Amino acid sequence: MSSAIELLIAAHTALSAVPLRTLRVSCLSPPSVLVSFMDGQSLMWTPKPEPMPMPACDPGVDDSAMLGKALRWLKADYFAEFAVHEELVAANASMFGARGADEVLAFKKSWLRMAKNYEVDAILDVDLKNRVVVASFDCLISGKEGRGTDVMQFDEQMKVSGVAAIRHTQVTS
User: Fold this and answer.
1) pLDDT single digits (tens) 19-54
2) Residue 92: what are its φ and ψ, rounded to 5°?
3) Checking phi first, is residue 87 left (phi over 0); if not, alpha (psi -120 to 50) or beta?
């Protein structure tokens, strides 16, 4: 194996008897894959020893600021904490047809009406280069229930500048 995709394929092949949810190549040595299962359990899978180059990782990059803000935004969606949205929204934000911070905040206030609006169960990716965080969610809003994936974009000041949601039932070819 000489690439991250080959490592992911090897992990999938080795563990295919069990329903898998996510696979992520780790920067650990030896190269390994963090695996989560549909039942919520997880493990670190390592292939049989053989020479393999380490995946490209930058251990000097700190993702905690962006990830922390993404988690606060997602929690604000869950509990309709509009003060958090006001703090974290970029002036030129655009999401779900709303443009600019005022429209985004008005949209949030009209949409998030329940005590608990969303359940977020996984952060799927933290893409530092593009300032993006990807999360999976279950919408709990009456009449809008369903599973989906949020893609959150941050600007240079680490403010939320955009969110796109993919509803899993609405993906078409």
Assistant:
1) 877 888 887 777 888 888 878 889 999 987 655 454
2) -105, 25
3) alpha
In degrees, rounded to 5, the angle at the alpha carbon of residue 33 between the alpha carbons of residues 32 and 36 is: 150
Query: If you average pLDDT over residues 62-68, what whole number do you get?
Result: 73
Residue 145 identity (one-letter amino acid):
E
Spatial distance between the Cα atoms of 81 and 131, rounded to a whole number of angstroms:
23
Q: How many helices (H) and strands (E) does the chain have?
A: 4, 9
CB 80 within 8 A of CB 117: yes
**Conformation bin of residue 138: beta by default, left when phi > 0, alpha when psi is -120 to 50:** beta
Q: How far apart are CA 14 and CA 1, in angstroms?
A: 14
Q: Please give the share of the chain, as a percent, with pLDDT higher than 90.
A: 53
Residue 56: what pLDDT?
A: 53
Confidence (pTM): 0.74
Task: List the chain domain ranges.
Answer: 4-45, 64-170
For residues 85-96, average pLDDT:
97
The token pair that represents 120 in the structure block: 């977020």
With the CA atoms of 43, 46, 52 and 57 taken in that order, what torsion angle do they form, in degrees rounded to the nearest 10?
20
Q: If residue 10 lies in a helix (H) or strand (E), which one and from where to where?
A: helix 4-15
Q: What CATH number does the domain located at 64-170 have?
A: 3.10.450.50
